Amino acid sequence: MRSITRTMAFFFIFPFLMGCKGEGGKKATDSGVSTQVQPKEAQSKKVEILKEKPQGVEAPEGMVWIPGREFMQGAVHQDKMAMGHEKPAHRVAVDGFFMDVNEVTNADFRKFVDATDYVTVAEREIDWEEMKKQLPEGTPKPPDSIMQPGSLTFKKTKTPVPNLYDFSQWWRWTIGANWKHPNGPGSSIKGLDNHPVVHISYEDALAYCDWAGRRLPSEAEWELAARANRDGAIFVWGDDLSMLSQMANSWEGEFPVTNTQVDGFERRAPVRSYQANDLGLYDMAGNVWEWTSDWYNSNYYKEMASSNQLAVNPIGPRTPFNERDRYAKERVIKGGSFLCSESYCASYRISARMATSLDSAQEHLGFRTVATVDMVQRETNK
Question: Apex CA 124: angle with CA 171 and CA 169, to 5°?
């Protein structure tokens, strides 16, 4: 049995909810003040970062080496679309690691399910007793007709919407939607082996990682990989927004009414449909959002920058906190999706980030994995 996604719960119970869709510190208070993870400090001695891949360690199939280095994490100064929680940029240093060349595909995930008989969160029955633990006391139980396994799917509106903060206008709870039926009952992944797997909750992604001998990237690792060698750039290809349709699967046209499909796709695209970044990674912008391991905390970037210290291999804040939703326990997702448009969050930018609840599953949310040198060596020696 599983608890219903908080996204689904608020979708029906709190229709007024609006929104655009680690270790070391103390719990966030009602004022939003929290102590974040304390970075290792580099004051008097040089920080040793693993930059080059050690000799004798080969990249696992489907992965590439991401050289370690120091960089500025967060929004660049010329990015006029950057949101407040992407600022200010702060110094981080990250050891090298291996990363999947592309998002985990339907074929990849099927191998995992076939080997383990795993059932995703979106496929499990809903337990109201567990669900209540995530909601304010006294919240009424939704009708049984709604309390069925499913996930969130996207539906275009028939007319322009004046309020782009009200996501309930284009998202709907779809009973029967899951990774095998990404657009709901009647849809299928037949012939879509090379499409990114979606409707994946955080728990689902962790289960896959455990089976594969991998883990999810930290937010800093993800941004280092996406940025590649383009420090100071807004996008993985540079600063030229006019190249968007050539470089990423995003929403082009009036959101959420008309997608002109200038980039070639209405919804998800097969992995590797667009040019890789400078490190050989595909779809680090657009297509589907990707999980990271970091808790989301609205204050994190401000507190990291205020420490004025180099953060070495940061793993995010100890506790989650969202100033717009005090009940939320969310992780950071990165990369944007096919639903991102210039008028609606523009999250195909390198520094873009969003918060998603752990049990949330949606048709534009997937993941990719990473592995450290130690992890690869352990798998090799099995």
Answer: 5
From residue 23, give the alpha-carbon distance in Å to each of 90, 207, 215, 220, 294.
18, 21, 16, 14, 10
Cβ–Cβ < 8 Å for 92, 333? no
300 neighbors 293 (Cβ within 8 angstroms): no
The per-residue b/e assignment along 319-333, b for 16 or more CB within 10 angstroms, e otherwise, is bbbbeebeebbbbbb
User: pLDDT averaged over the chain?
Assistant: 88
pLDDT value, residue 129: 83
Q: Are 289 and 110 in contact (CB under 8 A)?
A: no
Residue 342 has what pLDDT?
Answer: 86
Does the reported pTM lie above 0.85?
yes
Tens digits of residue pLDDT in 238-293: 999 999 999 999 999 999 999 999 999 999 999 999 999 999 999 999 999 999 99
Q: 3-class SS at 51?
A: coil
Q: Tell me if 282 sits within 8 A of 272, measured CB to CB.
A: yes
pLDDT in tens, 132-150: 776 778 888 888 877 889 9
CB-based burial of residue 117 (10 Å sphere; 0-12 exposed, 13-18 middle, 19+ buried)? exposed
Task: Report pLDDT digits (tens) over 21-46.
Answer: 332 333 333 334 343 444 444 444 67
Contacts of 152 (CB under 8 A, 6+ apart): 5, 7, 8, 11, 171, 172, 173, 174, 177, 360, 361, 362, 363
Asked if the peptide bond before residue 196 counts as cis, ω within 30 degrees of 0, the response is no
DSSP calls for 260-290: --TTS-SS---TT-S---TTS---SSBSSEE
- The token pair at 185 is 């009952």
Residue 124: other Cβ atoms inside 10 A: 16
The encoded tokens of residue 237 equal: 């290809």
Residue 134's alpha-carbon distances to 24, 57, 63, in angstroms, are 24, 44, 37
Amino acid, single-letter form, for residue 323? E
Q: Is the pLDDT of residue 20 over 50?
A: no
Residues 6+ apart with CB under 8 A from 371: 60, 63, 97, 98, 213, 214, 215, 379
pLDDT of residue 45: 60
Q: How far apart (Å, rounded) are the C-alpha atoms in residues 166 and 147?
A: 22
Cβ atoms of 144 and 151 within 8 Å: the answer is no
